[in-house]
Amino acid sequence: NAGVTQTPKFQVLKTGQSMTLQCAQDMNHEYMSWYRQDPGMGLRLIHYSVGAGITDQGEVPNGYNVSRSTTEDFPLRLLSAAPSQTSVYFCASRPAGGDEQFFGPGTRLTVL
Amino acid sequence: KQEVTQIPAALSVPEGENLVLNCSFTDSAIYNLQWFRQDPGKGLTSLLLIQSSQREQTSGRLNASLDKSSGRSTLYIAASQPGDSATYLCAAPRADSGNTPLVFGKGTRLSVIA
Prior knowledge:
By secondary structure, chain A is mainly beta. Chain A contains no helices and 11 strands.
């Protein structure tokens, strides 16, 4: 199993550009989440999903959209990037019957 | 609302010392608590998961304890090594969302000096 994969690893955007951060898992996990990690702020939850077709907002959802059309994929969309969205983004997944969460390697995003 | 706090924020110890990292949480009605390790520029690696019915979990030189009544968890590292240098994060589930997703502490940055 590849586990949780994220692409790209690095990205530089200009203010106002849009992009999608990809997250995929091959473990058939129902629960998936997106976090951002900023210095001094720790990891904060952006959006999460408890299964295909079901998503909900986390602590810092503004400026981000998600959808969950398949169990495997949970993309995070930035519609109009802002410098405040410069961060490291982590995707995580967990099986429905388990408690341990597994994280991807992260995407480092810089918005100029 | 679940809040997780980790003390100290940074810790430097000589190689071979035993050490304890602390984690406190505000809502004791948690399903579990998870400890992670994060190396610089890398993702999070799960170290230990303690269920609410357990008091301890051990993996090698690591031992994590959970005291729900006091809202505390500790991560004990025995005979520390330079390779243990990393940031250690604890996380507990949000109280209003069952056992997912997680609320994280800001971490303890550990340096083990050879």
